[in-house]
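Below: protein 1.
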Amino acid sequence: MDRKTKKLIKRIAVTAIAIALFLAFPLVILFWVICGIIDFSRNKTEGSLALKRYFTGNGILTWFLSPFNLFLDLISHKNPGIFQLEDFPDEYREEIETVLDVFKERKDDIMADIDEAMGENARGMYVYKWYGKQYIDNVPEFNREFKHLKTIAVSVFSGKESTSWHYGPIRMSIRILYNLTPVEKDNVFIECQGKKHLWYKDQFYAFDDTLFHRSVNDAGTPRYVVFMDIARPSYFPKIITTCMVGFSAILERFKSMFYKNWKMLDSKK
């Protein structure tokens, strides 16, 4: 069975299940559809692909969690979608800058460790912390307990590699990226909200990863990007923290699904 046939069968199955659920639970499904429409409308990316993937593709989990994500929006600070470092409260910014300073100071040593672990893999995720859980511990500065910063890792493309357009599932945190090896080319970027962020113009990028986005490295040179998640600044921070603790075990289980095309590099494997 070829790939196109498999995709067609999958879409037919999803449509059939959706119709069956609507007939069985019309008010519940209507509620989820309305939440999904409100949630999806935050995206500024043009084209039908964003809509299709949200409701029938890799955004289905984001749609399923849309009521919860909209609740998080209500109890959190304003979400501009794309963040500048100065948008974060002082406590949050201090943790971000502390970790980035370590990466800048020890870049060569860190990249050497990653290269040794990567081997021949095209994509790798070198994990120090994942939602508060400690993994690789060879950088002492990352072994402390951070109050707001929950994930510290390095995303690696060994050559020409790109992610597909996709959605992150949940808005408990903000994704923070920092390119350690920017090259002055326009074909190395991350794209979100209809805008391409060129790494050589700004190595820092922070965004809401439940928005439709992709990452592209068409330069053919290795790309090392610091990959961090920080709890969303909120009027009720304890609720956000509790949610992150509760979801961390679930996110740990789904890590291999979200990053199925990546080699997860951590001390526990």
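Below: protein 2.
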Amino acid sequence: MTGITTRPLAVFDVDNTLADTAHRQHFLERRPRDWDGFFGAAPADPPLPRGVALAVESGQDCEVVYLTGRPERCRADTVDWLARHGLPEGRVWMRGNQDRRPARTTKLEILKRLGRGREVRMLVDDDELVCQAARAAGFRVVLADWAADAPELKEAQETEGRT
């Protein structure tokens, strides 16, 4: 056996899809934004039950992978958080620490790479611009609309390329 799987992929965002970031939004309301504080508080994120349930359910038929706008320096905290909250094991794709492109650009680039040799059954993300770009590229999208609105985070995703 080669260890290569042909199961379709289910691709999940983390922030405001699986993890509730509401308790750390205040770090983004300051000027300048406190990115170290924002990401430093991520391990305390409560899980979003609808997102977690969808990821667990998807793991029955699909290989679950995670596509987050979090920078690479947050990898250990992110992997620990996913395991602590019972999410399926899966590869975690993150942006480079210095990558400030909009999430819709970085995530679509990785999504296309993932789809080259595998079926991507769905992308689940809360960012409407990421979802629009993925749909336009032919991917099936589930808009994660179950978290509280986070206007500061949405602005930062698009204008500062931070998450």
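The first strand starts at residue 9 and ends at 12.
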